[in-house]
């Protein structure tokens, strides 16, 4: 679609799964509809909650509503969203988070300029339930953060944009996983190409007691899957086996410490971002 100056504007499909209708969802939707420099296709997946047609944004022609009569989980919501997406670039946002107006435009430009990258995230600002900034999340930035993925998930799900064709190749989200589905998906994308994180805050992440990322158990199929993903990525990157094994042991220990609240989850901690030798993923 051309803009008012005749330039070609890229389209982005954004998927927001939700299990409730509230002011946070309205704000999340408005943040995407307020994006500049792109043609937005917003898919809001109502997972076990009835869409409210009285909400003004539900009648916006850029919005598609998907309804699961019964709650099926976030992975099923993402899969339903992918099935309805109109464009070849897909972005993700949680129903309680926010995107900056230029986020999608900058991520599109990055992927267009870096054909070897299959996905891109951004730096992320934490915010309280009332929207007050609480400090930046501790995340890696760079043109390729896959080696950091061997130790922990350094790409915030709400900041993610990826290529639809790559997501189809890796099979999309695994509906059998109810926890760590984002880490698993990002790791499988990483098997196909570079994962970048732009060195700019383009996403705001809301920390509150009801968020679904709290309390991931340190045992179960999601742990087994992530460990298998890490082995597969280690082989692709030709990383040292001994060092990777040590990282896996430490990571498993961290999951127990986090679950039993010995340490705080990463999304509750603020600090400086970390740049890596792979190069900085800055503004396009």
Helix content: 25-40%
Query: In total, how many domains does the architecture comprise?
Result: 1
Structural class label: alpha/beta
CATH architecture: Alpha-Beta Complex
Q: What's the N-to-C terminus distance?
A: 21 Å
- Based on CA atoms alone, the radius of gyration comes out at 18 Å
Which residues sit in consecutive blocks of at least 5 with pLDDT less than 50? none
Give the overall average pLDDT.
Answer: 91
In DSSP terms (H or I, runs of 4 or more residues), the helix count works out at 8
CATH C-level label: Alpha Beta
Strand coverage percent: 15-25%
Largest sheet: 9 strands, mixed
- Oligomeric description of these chains: single chain
Q: CATH superfamily name? A: Spore Coat Polysaccharide Biosynthesis Protein SpsA, Chain A
The shape, in one word, is globular
CATH topology call:
Spore Coat Polysaccharide Biosynthesis Protein SpsA, Chain A
H/E order of the elements?
Answer: EHEEHEEHEEEHEHHEHHE
Fold and architecture overview:
By secondary structure, this protein is an alpha/beta fold. It has one domain: Spore Coat Polysaccharide Biosynthesis Protein SpsA, Chain A (Alpha-Beta Complex). 31% of the residues lie in helices and 23% in strands. It contains 8 helices and 11 strands. The protein has helices at 23-33, 74-84, 103-113, 146-149, 164-169, 181-190, 221-237, 241-259; strands spanning 11-18, 39-47, 63-68, 89-92, 98-99, 117-127, 133-136, 140-141, 161-163, 194-206, 274-275. Strands 1, 2, 3, 4, 5, 6, 7, 9 and 10 form a 9-stranded mixed beta sheet that branches. A two-stranded parallel ribbon has the order 8-11. Helix 6 packs parallel to helix 7 (221-237) and helix 7 packs antiparallel against helix 8. The mean pLDDT is 91.
């Amino acid at each position: 679609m051309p803009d008012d100056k005749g330039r070609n504007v890229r389209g982005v499909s954004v998927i927001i799964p939700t299990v409730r209708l509230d002011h946070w969802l309205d704000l999340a939707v408005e943040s995407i509809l307020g994006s500049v420099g792109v043609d937005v296709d917003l898919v809001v997946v109502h997972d076990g909650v009835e869409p409210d047609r009285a909400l003004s944004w539900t009648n916006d022609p850029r919005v598609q509503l998907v309804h699961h009569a019964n709650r099926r989980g976030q992975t099923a919501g993402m899969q339903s969203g992918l099935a309805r997406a109109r464009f070849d670039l897909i972005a993700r946002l949680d129903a309680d988070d926010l995107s900056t107006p230029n986020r999608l435009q900058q991520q599109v430009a990055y992927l267009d300029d870096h054909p070897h990258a299959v996905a891109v995230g951004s730096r992320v600002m934490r915010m309280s339930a009332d929207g007050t900034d609480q400090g930046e999340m501790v995340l890696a930035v760079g043109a390729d953060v896959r080696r950091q993925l061997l130790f922990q998930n350094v790409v915030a799900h709400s900041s993610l944009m990826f290529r639809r064709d790559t997501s189809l190749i890796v099979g999309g989200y695994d509906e059998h996983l109810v926890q760590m589905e984002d880490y698993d998906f990002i790791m499988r994308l990483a098997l196909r190409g570079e994962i970048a994180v732009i060195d700019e805050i383009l996403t705001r992440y809301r920390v509150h007691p009801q968020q679904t990322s709290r309390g991931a158990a340190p045992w179960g199929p999601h742990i087994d899957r992530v460990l298998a993903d890490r082995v597969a990525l280690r082989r692709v990157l030709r990383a040292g086996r001994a060092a990777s094994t040590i990282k896996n042991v430490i990571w498993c220990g961290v999951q127990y410490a986090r679950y039993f609240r010995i340490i705080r989850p990463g999304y509750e901690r603020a600090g400086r971002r970390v740049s890596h030798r792979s190069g900085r993923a800055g503004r396009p």
